[in-house]
Amino acid sequence: MLSRVEGIVLRAMDYGESNRILNVLTKQAGKISMMARGAKKVKSRFASLSQPFTHAEFVIFRSSPQAMGTINSGEIMRSHHRLREELELSACAAYLAELTNRLVADNEPIPALFDQLAAALDMMEAGKDAAVITQIYEMQMLAVAGFMPELYACVLCGSTANELSALEAEQGGTVCVKCRPQAAHAMDVSPAVLKLLRAYQQLDLRRLGSIKISRGSKDQLQRFIRTYMDVHLHVRWKSRDFLDQLSKLNFDST
């Protein structure tokens, strides 16, 4: 059965002497696997189609909705060359792809998430702040995984009346000023940082305009989001380890 799907290549794995297996997030069918026969050959018509982060329209054959597809033809919509050529952008894009690949179930369409991933890659390639885009997408993936933090009430007493002054990853979100002494591992944050974190939950990356966030605020946001993910998702992200090493090298050189 032939079908036409719009997709973004999350991962490409060599298979045999000349083939590649692609993990692709599609708008119509969710995350699926595709066989790109002969894609490792230099002159293959599927060589460029099977590159990571490629956004394309694929025509695939699948014997059943759950079976691996075989690419019959395809047309690249956005190649995202820059995301593969520039090391820092490549690291960010690889992390977004790994988040998606590991947290999205197979064959479950999430068109809204597809649109957000496409927008994130487009915005990074256009030169917008990759760190901010990454943090927004991390929050979106937490929602997909069912672990969105509580940011409007105290996770210890449930109050919405008291000032929320800290974030506690293990307890799941914000802590009020009255409960702060009981939260030994909480991170104190300014109202501005908390406002940004709430905005991250709601932002549509397709409509992200010019956004400037101080280094200190980005560092606080990253610390909480990453700690929260580690506590609740229990996943070791290979691409994030590399991204963090790269960020440290860049910081040390400044």
TrEMBL record:
GO terms for biological process: DNA recombination; double-strand break repair. InterPro entries: ARFGAP/RecO, DNA_rep/recomb_RecO_N, NA-bd_OB-fold, RecO, RecO_C. Gene3D superfamilies: Nucleic acid-binding proteins (2.40.50.140), Recombination protein O, C-terminal domain (1.20.1440.120). Residues 1-79 form the DNA replication/recombination mediator RecO N-terminal domain. Keywords: DNA damage, DNA recombination, DNA repair. One of its GO terms (cellular component) is bacterial nucleoid. The keyword S-adenosyl-L-methionine does not apply. SUPFAM superfamilies: ArfGap/RecO-like zinc finger, Nucleic acid-binding proteins. NCBIfam families: reco. Involved in DNA repair and RecF pathway recombination. Belongs to the RecO family. This is DNA repair protein RecO. It comes from Insulibacter thermoxylanivorax. The lineage of its organism: Bacteria, Bacillati, Bacillota, Bacilli, Bacillales.
